[in-house]
Amino acid sequence: MNVHYNADPSIILNKKVAVIGYGSQGHAHALNLKDSGANVVVGLRDGSQSVEKARAKGLRVMSISDAAAWGNVVMILIPDQDQKRVYEAEIAQHITPGKALAFGHGFNVHYDQIQAPEGVDVFMVAPKGPGHLVRRTFEEGKGTPCLAAVAQDASGSAMALALSYAHAIGGTRAGVIETNFKDETETDLFGEQAVLCGGSQALIQAGFETLTEAGYPEELAYFEVLHELKLIVDLYYEGGLSYMNYSISDTAEYGNYSRGPRIIGPQVKQEMKRILSEIQSGQFAQEWIQECEEGQPTFQAYREATASHPVEKIGQKLRKMMAWLQKSNDTVNL
Fold first, then answer.
1. First to last CA, the chain
2. C-alpha closest to that of 25 among 162, 151, 124
3. How far apart are CA 332 and CA 160, in angstroms?
């Protein structure tokens, strides 16, 4: 893989960049672009609560349609399930030859929900971290690693444009890896479902239930299976598997080696393969698209079940005791 630590900043600085959306990624991209000297506006729907937030940070705000008409680089950073509808209603008519259409995630392009017209560059810059981290590391003079990909190279220089964009949001400070829309989309979905979100949440809930059903206090169970997980993940983040094992006790390390594979054994890997095949075939994408078209009944039921789980109830109580968490919670709720 090609990894880039440099790019031509003048390419994006000579463009008019419309960032559609001001959520987790949108606010970070827009502010980092602005601070890098780019000519940027934020496109938001009428009545959006984010309008005043963006203006308070010195950003120009337009309607989505006006922003798409104004920009010659249009970066779409609204939720996956909203992109097709908003694109067709407010953006598509303004994506004319010579412009560039950009994404922070490949879902809608890879699964053919959005198809750009001929004569338009289509690229992706996907930071490998949440938006508040992209913004914070940029302000610290650092950066968040990014993936960059091109789905349509009408100009012959779409990758150079993508890299220049990534440079302006801080990506080249940490490294920008060239990939493609397919690989970014499928690996991202797999990671979310099997390990980072779906896998870890299910593991936490099962561990909590096992301890509390055996009669242990909820408070102890919470600390052991949820709270301390961050400490372990931080060790993974800093130095990988070996560093985590080096940092824990010998007792914990032996228990890791001898008991961990009994929890995440061959049957789990087989299910992971099934999940990956559903992503690769488009089955998951179609399921999610249909779920959204039907008003998200199953999705909302999942949310309610998670919110009412006992580990959430005791967690709310215990986190109120943790004064150091209040500032980070304010930062996340952008």
1. 34
2. 124
3. 32
Residues 74, 150: Cα–Cα separation, whole Å: 14
SS3 51: helix
- β-strand pairing of 100-103 with 73-76: parallel
How does 162-197 read in b/e, with b if 16+ C-beta sit within 10 Å? Answer: bbbbbbbbbbbbbebbebebeebbbebbbeebbeee
pLDDT by residue, tens only, the chain of 334 residues: 899 999 999 999 999 999 999 999 999 999 999 999 999 999 999 899 999 999 999 999 999 999 999 999 999 999 999 999 999 999 999 999 999 999 999 999 999 999 999 999 999 999 999 999 999 999 999 999 999 999 999 999 999 999 999 999 999 999 999 999 999 999 999 999 999 999 999 999 999 999 999 999 999 999 999 999 999 999 999 999 999 999 999 999 999 999 999 999 999 999 999 999 999 999 999 999 999 999 999 999 999 999 999 999 999 999 998 988 876 544 333 3
Crossing angle between the packed helical segments 181-190 and 266-281, to the nearest 10 degrees: 140
- How many Å apart are CA 235 and CA 248, to the nearest integer? 10
Strand 3-4 to strand 176-178: parallel, antiparallel, or no bridges (unpaired)?
antiparallel
Q: pTM score, two decimals?
A: 0.91
Active-site residue, selected from the candidate residues 105, 132, 227, 309 = 105
Angle subtended by helix axes 24-35 and 131-139, to nearest 10: 20
Active site residue 105: yes
Kind plus residue range of the DSSP H or E element containing 39 = strand 39-44
Helices in the chain by DSSP H: which ranges? 9-13, 24-35, 50-56, 64-70, 80-86, 107-110, 131-139, 158-168, 181-190, 198-213, 218-222, 229-247, 250-263, 266-281, 283-293, 297-307, 310-319, 325-332
In the β-sheet with 3-4, what is the strand arrangement from edge to edge? 3-4, 176-178, 146-152, 121-127, 100-103, 73-76, 16-20, 39-44, 60-63
Six-digit token string for 42: 């934020």
> In the 8-state DSSP scheme, what is residue 92?
G
